[in-house]
Design goal:
The chain has one domain: Rossmann fold (3-Layer(aba) Sandwich). The chain has a seven-stranded parallel sheet, sandwiched between helices. Helix content is about 55%, strand content about 15%. Helix 4 (about 95-125) runs parallel beside helix 5 (about 145-165) and helix 9 crosses helix 10. By secondary structure, the protein is α/β, with parallel strands linked by helices. The model has no long low-confidence stretch (mean pLDDT about 95). It contains ten helices and seven strands. About 45% of the residues are buried. The chain has helices at about 15-20, 35-45, 60-75, 95-125, 145-165, 185-190, 195, 210-220, 230-240, 245-265; strands at about 5-10, 30-35, 50-55, 80, 130-135, 170-180, 225-230.
């Protein structure tokens, strides 16, 4: 049997880069990123089983191009991994509209466009699996990263609704909500500890791209509706996110803890 076909976004760095490289032989790949030159530098040119393509996830027409190119080369899509994302911490009174646009364009519209376009292909072929990377910030609010929180709440809400809508068509949708992951996004947040403090309020043992890879492989195998990593932080996020009064009571302590953790991590 031929290997399944997977489209992945954000493949030039971070989680997407690691997953596509580590699992190069598991799938026939369409690896995408807005940084096409870096994508080619990482993976090389097109081969029989690998198609690297530039993609601005916030552009619906470009998603149509990716869909058509995938079908032309491989004839089907078995998996879509929406991993591309951005985190630009900023207090809302110090931000301008560009922070709103970037978070919603890349994090939210990218997932909505991709899921919508590729689900049509999966419906015609009789099934498939879409995996959307959200965040624990899509479960509980993260002050200082309010725009990121908004974008990830939207991704999670959309993905959970889409999962119920698409299941009868043979299409699974899994939402993965990681805690802070050691990627270039993590490095950027360390330069803004005041704004990012809540994201550092967990353990100083930060998740790695390998941790997220294992969660994705678990999702592929079990097809759950949602995975939070680590699970314990996911439970706390759901408790804090469901009762606003608890969030307010915990906020100051978590903020101070986050500042201390950020300092420790930066010193490392």
């Amino acid at each position: 049997m031929e290997r399944p076909v997977a489209i992945i976004t954000g493949a030039a760095s971070g989680i997407g880069r690691h997953f596509a490289r580590k699992n190069r032989t598991q799938f026939r790949w369409v690896a995408t990123d807005i940084r096409e030159a870096r994508l080619l530098e990482t993976f090389g040119e097109e081969t029989e089983d690998f198609l690297p393509l530039g993609l601005d996830v916030s552009n619906a027409r470009e998603w149509n191009r990716i869909a058509e190119a995938t079908l032309e080369k491989f004839g089907r899509v078995d998996y879509l991994l929406n991993i591309a994302g951005v985190s630009l911490p900023r207090f809302i009174t110090e931000a301008d509209e560009s922070y709103i646009d970037k978070h919603l364009d890349i994090n939210t519209k990218g997932v909505l466009y991709g899921t919508t376009r590729i689900a049509r292909i999966m419906e015609k072929q009789g099934g498939g699996h879409i995996i959307n990377i959200a965040s624990l910030a899509g479960i509980a609010p993260v002050p200082g990263m309010s725009y990121y929180t908004a974008s990830k709440f939207a991704v999670r809400g959309f993905s959970l609704a889409a999962a119920l809508e698409l299941r009868d068509k043979g299409i699974y949708v899994t939402t993965i909500c990681p805690d802070l992951v050691r990627t270039p996004m993590f490095d950027h947040q360390l330069t803004l500890p005041r704004e990012s403090a809540l994201s550092f309020s967990g353990s100083t043992k930060v998740l790695t791209v390998e941790d997220v890879e294992r969660a994705i492989q678990k999702a592929i195998k079990r097809k759950p509706l949602e995975l939070a990593i680590p699970p314990a932080r996911g439970i706390l996020a759901k408790i804090g996110g469901s009762v606003s009064g608890i969030t307010w009571l915990l906020y100051r302590n978590l903020y101070q803890k986050g500042l201390k953790n950020a300092k420790k991590l930066k010193n490392r």
